[in-house]
């Protein structure tokens, strides 16, 4: 087994729009250059190189997977979370989780020998950046064929906050269940922002949109901004099937200018339903309304168990509508 090049590695990386090599290290971006500038200008500089929704994925009959890595916090919040998983034929076989960043370390995993090819996925961190080098993979590694393409847009929940296991976030679950290529452009703290949208060379068959909570708390939801967002999104991807995911339940009785989050869900629904290729999915009951399914005290961000409920309910609804 030998160290593979960036060019060879790119055959097995899913979820990245660009792969950059600097001083021997390889890093990844799920945003275009223009979107990266937008993130920096709007207070999200650390998210530019976070690896939510990315994975190293291949087929092999067994052997070694290893690489050195460096990681830094990518979220603007005070929660630093680093988690990576390795699954073999969908079964978890390796897990690392740390809350103190930055870190520098090495992953080594020996894939058991098999008579036939098995599917291996290395899920990259959700709320952290990642740089890797000296990547070693089994010599018989083959690329995975994925014909369906999904683009996911949204806030911290779409970005995967606050999953300990990267494969549990709902976007990774949907991509796995549909065997689809995924570009996840969820950003913690993000709102409906038409200027962020840009036509990608990655032409998605499916687009999911999950904003609204941050807009509501910022008192910017009941404006023309969501209208402009959906108008531009529809123009960019007229041949894609677009799904508007209404915000999940959160325990916050806050009323802003006489309006509630339930009223916000209805407002988003009415805007999205104006477009023929946009279907609205009400996600309010996808995560149980109980504290043990959430990570934070305000019951806003699902924990791993909550994400499993979210992903499974969403997958069922998507397959009904596709």
Report on this model:
The chain has eight helices and 15 strands. It is of the alpha/beta class and about 325 residues long. The protein has a five-stranded antiparallel sheet with strand order 1-4-9-6-7, with no helix packed on it. Strands 2-3-10-5-8 form a five-stranded antiparallel sheet, with no helix packed on it. It has a five-stranded parallel sheet with strand order 12-11-13-14-15, with helices on both faces. Strand 14 (about 240-245), helix 7 and strand 15 form a beta-alpha-beta unit. The longest helix has 18 residues, at about 305-320. The N and C termini lie far apart (about 40 Å). The model has no long low-confidence stretch (mean pLDDT about 95).
Overall geometric form: globular
Q: Helix proportion of residues, in percent?
A: 10-25%
The number of helical runs is 8
Rg from C-alpha positions? 19 Å
Order of helices and strands: HEEEHEEEEEEEEHHEEHHEHEH
Overall mean pLDDT: 94
The strand line-up of the biggest sheet is 1-4-9-6-7
Low-confidence stretches: none
Please indicate the percent range of residues in DSSP E strands (runs of 2 or more): 25-35%
Supply the helix-strand structural class.
alpha/beta
How many angstroms does the end-to-end distance come to? 42 Å
């Amino acid at each position: 087994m030998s160290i593979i090049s960036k060019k060879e590695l790119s055959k097995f990386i899913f979820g990245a729009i660009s792969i950059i090599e600097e001083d021997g290290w390889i890093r990844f971006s799920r945003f275009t250059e223009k979107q990266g500038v937008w993130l920096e200008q709007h207070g999200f500089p650390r998210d530019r190189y976070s690896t939510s929704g990315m994975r190293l994925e291949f087929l092999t009959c067994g052997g070694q997977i290893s690489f050195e890595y460096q990681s830094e916090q990518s979220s603007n919040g005070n929660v630093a979370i680093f988690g990576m998983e390795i699954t073999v034929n969908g079964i978890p076989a390796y897990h690392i989780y740390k809350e103190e960043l930055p870190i520098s370390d090495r992953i080594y995993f020996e894939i058991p020998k098999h008579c036939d090819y098995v599917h291996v996925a290395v899920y990259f961190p959700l709320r952290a950046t990642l740089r890797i080098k000296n990547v070693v993979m089994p010599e018989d590694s083959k690329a995975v064929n994925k014909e369906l393409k999904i683009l996911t847009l949204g806030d911290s929940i779409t970005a995967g906050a606050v999953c300990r296991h990267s494969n549990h976030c709902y976007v990774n679950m949907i991509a796995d269940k549909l065997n689809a290529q995924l570009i996840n452009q969820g950003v913690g703290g993000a709102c409906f922002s038409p200027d962020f949208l840009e036509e990608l060379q990655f032409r998605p068959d499916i687009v999911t949109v999950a904003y609204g909570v941050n807009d509501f708390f910022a008192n910017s939801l009941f404006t023309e901004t969501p209208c402009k967002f959906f108008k531009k999104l529809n123009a960019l991807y007229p041949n894609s099937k677009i799904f508007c995911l209404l915000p999940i339940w959160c325990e916050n009785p806050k009323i802003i200018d006489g309006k509630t989050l339930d009223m916000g869900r209805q407002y988003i629904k009415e805007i999205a339903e104006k477009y023929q290729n946009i279907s609205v999915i009400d996600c309010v009951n996808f995560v149980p309304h109980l504290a043990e399914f959430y990570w934070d005290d305000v019951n806003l961000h699902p924990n791993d168990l909550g994400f499993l409920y979210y992903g499974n309910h969403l997958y069922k609804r998507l397959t009904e509508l596709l």
